[in-house]
């Protein structure tokens, strides 16, 4: 656990201090920037499942250029409505790859349940077989032959904060290994950044 805490603190410090703008945003010295996307706003307006207040939140979240913090008590729809539709909008209407994080496996499993109810058809749950009830989307569930293809075609990853720190290093190493030592179709070489031979 000490290694994970070290990585967490190091990541926060890097994010905060390597870019002076990030520090200004975090300390509240600078307001987040927003650029409206009328196409996505129109898509949000067509969602019948959520009320006008949640639509305003979604529009602000989707238009942020820096960060957007959604905070509220349990049961207010942060996961079941806002996160579900925000992830769906980004995955289905952009080239964005998103990483959804929570602190506990229980919270991550809740996110997975919500994502399965959305229009997102391809997501990966980072973790091992003992950490989740959603074994069908667990990264550790995939064979090494399928892993590079699954990761390269996935636009949504879900994990605990601790697993994300550990696993992202593993993904890079595994994909690097697969690309260098297994015969892989040429498209993978450019996707993962390996040198073409």
List the helices and strands and how they pair.
Elements: H1 2-17, H2 20-26, H3 38-45, H4 52-63, H5 78-93, E1 98-102, H6 105-116, E2 123-125, H7 144-152, E3 156-160, H8 161-181, H9 186-191
Parallel strand pairs: 1-3, 2-3
Helix pairs in contact: 1-8, 3-4, 4-5, 5-6, 7-8
Describe this structure as you would to a colleague.
- There is one protein chain.
- By secondary structure, the protein is mainly alpha-helical.
- A 3-stranded parallel sheet has the order 1-3-2.
- It has a single domain (2-191), classed as 3-Layer(aba) Sandwich (Rossmann fold).
- The longest helix has 21 residues, at 161-181.
- Strand 2 (123-125), helix 7 and strand 3 form a beta-alpha-beta unit.
- It is globular.
- Mean pLDDT is 77; it is low at 170-197.
- Helix content is 54%, strand content 7%.
- It has helices at 2-17, 20-26, 38-45, 52-63, 78-93, 105-116, 144-152, 161-181, 186-191; strands at 98-102, 123-125, 156-160.
What labels would you give this structure?
197 residues; mainly alpha; Rossmann fold; three-stranded parallel β-sheet; 54% helix
Uncertain spans: 170-197
* Rg over C-alpha atoms, rounded to the nearest angstrom: 18 Å
Q: How many helical elements?
A: 9
CATH hierarchy class name: Alpha Beta
Q: What is the element string, with H for helices and E for strands?
A: HHHHHEHEHEHH
Q: Which percent bin holds the helix content? A: 40-55%
Mean pLDDT over all positions:
77
Strand content: 5-15%
Q: In CATH terms, what is the architecture?
A: 3-Layer(aba) Sandwich
C-alpha termini separation:
40 Å
Mass-distribution shape: globular
Number of strands: 3
Largest sheet: 3 strands, parallel
CATH topology: Rossmann fold
């Amino acid at each position: 656990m000490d290694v994970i805490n070290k990585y967490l603190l190091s990541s926060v410090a890097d994010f905060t201090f390597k870019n002076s703008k990030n520090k200004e945003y975090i300390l509240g010295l600078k307001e987040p920037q927003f650029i409206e996307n009328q196409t996505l706003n129109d898509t949000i307006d067509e969602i019948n499942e959520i009320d006008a207040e949640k639509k305003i939140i979604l529009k602000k979240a989707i238009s942020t250029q820096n960060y957007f913090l959604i905070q509220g008590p349990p049961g207010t729809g942060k996961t079941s409505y806002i996160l579900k539709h925000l992830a769906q909008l980004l995955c289905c209407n952009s080239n964005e790859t998103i990483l959804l994080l929570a602190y506990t496996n229980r919270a991550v499993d809740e996110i997975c349940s919500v994502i399965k109810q959305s229009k997102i058809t391809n997501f990966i749950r980072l973790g091992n077989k003992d950490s989740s009830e959603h074994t069908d989307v667990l990264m550790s569930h995939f064979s090494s032959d399928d892993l590079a293809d699954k990761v390269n075609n996935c636009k949504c990853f879900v994990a605990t904060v601790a697993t994300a720190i550990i696993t992202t290093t593993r993904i890079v190493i595994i994909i690097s290994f697969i690309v260098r030592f297994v015969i892989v179709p040429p498209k993978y070489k450019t996707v993962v950044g390996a040198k073409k031979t």
